[in-house]
Structures are given as C-alpha cells and as structure tokens.
Design the sequence.
C-alpha cells in the first residue's frame, strides 16, 4: 500500500532530524537539544494558578462546546481587552487544540485545492505542512535579514495573485525572533488592500517581547482589512502540551462571515477541545505574574547565544527581540559543508548538539542558517556554543 500524495508532500524540519538524534543517543551520547520551542523541557513551570485549576477541573470530563468553553471564551475576551485593547464578541473567538489545529481549520475554510497562500520566508513550518495537505500552492515573501528580519513589502506585492486566499504574518516571529514595526504592518495592509483577502496574524508570542513596547497587534495597526489572529497557551503560559490555542476574528466590513462559519463548522466536526484543560486555561488567562521573571531569564539566555555567535568568525546574527528563537547565518564558503542541513547533521553527529537547519523554514531566506532555541540555562547554552565553535574550527577547509 502507498502513502497518499497529499501526505507524502509534507515535510516538518523541526522533527525530521529526530531519527538521527535517536541513533546518536543510542550510541550512549548525551544530546544538547536546542531544536524545539518547548519550555517545559527546561527549567520553566506552568503557572501554579493553572495547575491548581486543572486539578479542580479534572472531573469535567464531558465533551465541551465545540467553538470553545464559554468560561474560556470569557477569559480570552478579558485577556485580549487587557493586553491588546480589543473588544471581541464571543462569536468571533474559536478555541482549538493548539494554534496548530486552528491553522488547519481556518486555512481549510478559506481555500480550495489549487488556491494559493502567501507565507513568510523563513516560516514556522506547520504552515507549509497544512498548505501541502490542503493542496494549496505556496508563495513566499522574503523577510529581510539586513532589515531586522522585517517583511519585505515589495516581495509581498510581487507574490500576490488573483487566487491568493490569505497572507500569513508571524509576529513576533519564529524562527527569527523579529517583531514587526507598525510602519511595515501599515505598508502590508496597503499592499493587500486591492486583493480582498484576509491577513492571518500569528501572535502566539505576543507577550514574550524581550525589548519592551516593540509589539503591535496587527488589528491595532491595520484597521480596514479582515484579520484572523492566533494566540494560545503554549508559549506565554508555558503549557505547550496542554494543547490550547485560539483564533479571533477582526472583520471591520463583515466580509468574513462565511469562511469563519466554515472554520467553526470544522470545530464541530472534531467535537471539542479537551474540556478540563480549557477550564484551567480560563483560570490563568489574565494572570501574567510569571512573565517579568520569565522574560529576564530568557533575555540572559539570548545574550549568551548572541555573544557566542559573535565570537565565531563564520557566524552572524540579528539579535532576536522576542520569543526564544535565534536564527544565525552560517558563512559556508570556508567550511566543509555543502549546505546548512549537512552542517546541522554533522554537528549532531560530532558534537551532539541538536539544532534545526534553516532551509527547513524557508527555501530562500532560510538557506545557510540554523535555528537555535535558547530556552536552556546559560551553562548548557555556553557549552553548546563552545561545541559549535569547536566544530566549525575543525571543519574549516
Ligand atoms: C509561530 C507559531 N505558531 C503556532 C505554533 C504552535 O502552537 P500550538 O502549540 O498552540 O499548536 C508555534 C509553535 O512553535 C509557533 O511557533
């Protein structure tokens, strides 16, 4: 029997290297894993208020409201009002089993096979995976490393087509750690205005901005274009394994009723997200007491990586402004590797440090980069940077 074409076209770089890592580990080597943005694997804890609420909610084993438990919807309304100033009607919020599920539901509701979607390069790879699954043609717009990894608006204009069904922004960004300026957001709004399509704005790292005051939620800047925003509990609330995310609709001219109803219909097809976990998230949604110390910790760890990268001749980096991802460039011209993937595999085999190759995030701008997640403590990160340096020195031509 054979795998369907629809599924065989899907690649997921972040987890693709795991079989090689397992092989290295099976030889008794301890691997420094800096490949996945999962805080709970390091010294971070889900806020106590949410943990306690989960214990209390454990008896709520019923299948909940498909679009999201009302208690959670109310908490999301309060949270969005508090942090972003939005008044969002309950009908304009959908809860999913992670943003991941909502990427599928909303893209499925917006497009048919053969349509196009415009993604950033580099991009969080779930978008490519879902687009492939749905039979969409992917176009990429460049994000400019030389301009703090901001989206290149000309590249957006060049890659919009009559059958483009959505433009995706990831802000703050995975994998670059960039935060988009209001000026660039405004220009993006102007660029897509003639196309009558929504912006999908993935803001799952919104409160994880290390450099304060930089972040602007897209609907606060672009006022006249429909926007679907994603956010959730995997990052800011440190609970990636709880699998709760949400989408909000900002539809100033009422153009999105049909596709939004389509996405809501998809939530009904899968019955509901995990009910007790939704109640636990509701308890913690407006409480961000854990954030100041979290951001302080992340900032110190970022600095270890940025300083480590700057200490290696062949590497360079735009210092990340948010989240916990760094995306250094490798100058391969004097190294014994044909590309970034070979570099990352070599590093894993020789020094047992697991990163993700940049080309797994985007065909053009991701090339000659790697993503290093800086969630681990300073000691582990310093050790990793030393190993990367040793590996590079050893592999100079
Ligand atoms: C930009 C972005 N969006 C969405 C997700 C997935 O979120 P969730 O855990 O809510 O499915 C991630 C996870 O790394 C991400 O980086």
Sequence:
């Amino acid at each position: 029997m054979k795998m369907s074409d629809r599924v065989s076209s899907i690649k997921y770089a972040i987890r693709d290297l795991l079989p090689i890592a397992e092989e290295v580990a099976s030889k008794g080597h301890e691997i420094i894993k800096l490949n996945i943005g999962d805080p709970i694997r390091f010294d971070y804890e889900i806020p106590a208020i949410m943990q306690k609420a989960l214990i209390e909610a454990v008896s709520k084993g019923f299948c909940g409201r498909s679009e999201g438990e009302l208690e959670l919807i109310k908490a999301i309304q309060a949270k969005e009002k508090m942090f972003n100033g939005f008044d969002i009607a309950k009908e304009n919020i959908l809860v999913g089993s992670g943003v991941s599920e909502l990427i599928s539901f909303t893209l499925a509701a917006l497009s048919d096979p053969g349509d196009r979607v415009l993604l950033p390069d580099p991009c969080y790879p779930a978008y490519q995976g879902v687009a492939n699954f749905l039979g969409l043609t992917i176009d990429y717009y460049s994000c400019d490393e030389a301009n703090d990894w901001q989206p290149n608006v000309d590249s957006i204009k060049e890659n919009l087509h009559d059958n483009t069904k959505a433009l995706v922004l990831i802000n703050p960004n995975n994998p670059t750690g960039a935060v988009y300026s209001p000026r660039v957001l405004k220009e993006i709004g102007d660029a897509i205005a003639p196309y009558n399509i929504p912006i999908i704005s993935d803001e799952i790292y919104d409160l994880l901005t290390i450099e304060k005051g930089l972040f602007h939620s897209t609907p606060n800047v672009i006022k006249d274009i429909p926007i679907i925003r994603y956010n959730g509990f995997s990052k800011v609330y440190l609970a990636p394994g709880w699998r709760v995310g949400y989408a909000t609709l900002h539809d100033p001219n009422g153009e999105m009723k049909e596709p939004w109803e389509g996405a809501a219909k998809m939530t009904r097809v899968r019955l509901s997200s995990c009910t007790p976990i939704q109640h636990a998230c509701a308890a913690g949604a407006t409480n961000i007491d854990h954030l100041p110390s979290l951001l302080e910790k992340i900032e110190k760890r970022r600095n270890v990586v940025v300083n480590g990268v700057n200490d290696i001749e062949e590497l360079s980096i735009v210092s990340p402004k948010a989240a916990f991802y760094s995306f250094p460039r490798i100058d391969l011209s004097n190294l014994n590797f044909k590309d970034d993937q070979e570099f990352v595999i070599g590093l894993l085999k020789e020094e047992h440090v697991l990163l993700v190759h940049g080309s797994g995030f985007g065909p053009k701008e991701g090339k000659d980069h790697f993503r290093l997640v800086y969630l681990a403590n300073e000691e582990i990160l310093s050790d990793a940077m030393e190993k990367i340096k040793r590996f590079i020195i050893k592999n100079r031509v």
Summary: Residues 55 and 392 are 48 Å apart (CA to CA).
